[in-house]
Amino acid sequence: MVRIPVSTLRIWERRYQVVGPAVTATGHRLYSGAEVERLLLIKQLVDLGHAIGSLARLPTEALLEIADTRAALDAEPSAAPRPRAVLLGLGLPRRLGALSLRRVATWADLAGAEAALATEPAPDLQSDLLVAELATLQPESATRLLALAQRLGARRCLVIYGFGSEAAAQRLRQSGWRLARAPQADADLRAQVAELAAGLGAAALASWPDPLAPPSDLALPPRRFDDAALHRLAAASTTVACECPRHIAELVLQLASFETYSAECVDRSPADAALHRDLQQVSGVARAMFEAALQRVAEAESLPLPPGR
Fold first, then answer.
1. Residue 11 forms part of a structural domain
2. What are 144-169's pLDDT values in tens digits?
3. Same domain, yes or no, for 248 and 286?
């Protein structure tokens, strides 16, 4: 299941105390679900190049953070935040690999998840995505899954199951869950989870306030420098080999011109009045910010500032 050679596993246990399974009277090791999940996670990190000695004594939460950070670094750059995910089922960490998720928790089964929720603070386990893999899906397990998703606040849910009743499956579908039958190839599973995660990221981006859209009633500050003052600042010599005053002054001139242009379009095109009013406000805000920057640069370089600024 964990794809670790027995000899390697014995060395890890003896030398690094990675896990401490119970031992029967006949010498057989008994691994708990939590220990299997820990081994899966460590194997994943070792395969990515991390040294076993640096991982062995870390708590599972720290291992999850390392794996998720590595996945984020390996993923394509994106403005969307990483969805918080809960994985329910042995082997899911290995099967999903390095997806750009922030794993809040991994549990071996429903009982383990319910036990954790009974002891962990609910806010610490809030997640966007729940992925569950079950051998069977029955009405009782569907009820427990729905309750689990509600406790976690999960907005997207995927369950992979081997055998189950159609009534239980239909109940989950009606609640917006995505269902898949096992066995399922690892690549197909990763594609489904990646699709759900991408949808969550797009929804999060859509809900972010637009930093380029100031309120419609925003009062724009008057110009701090007129065109003549900006031209003088752009032409003034500085004490160091720095062209920032010229560049900033030129930017302020361009933004002020575009601000005026947008204001003129508001009057000339009633159909586009709202759009050009927004553009006027955006350029006015940017102009005021660069004017403040120009003042700081001018003072730092002892450049002449116009009177009554």
1. no
2. 999 988 888 888 899 999 998 888 99
3. yes
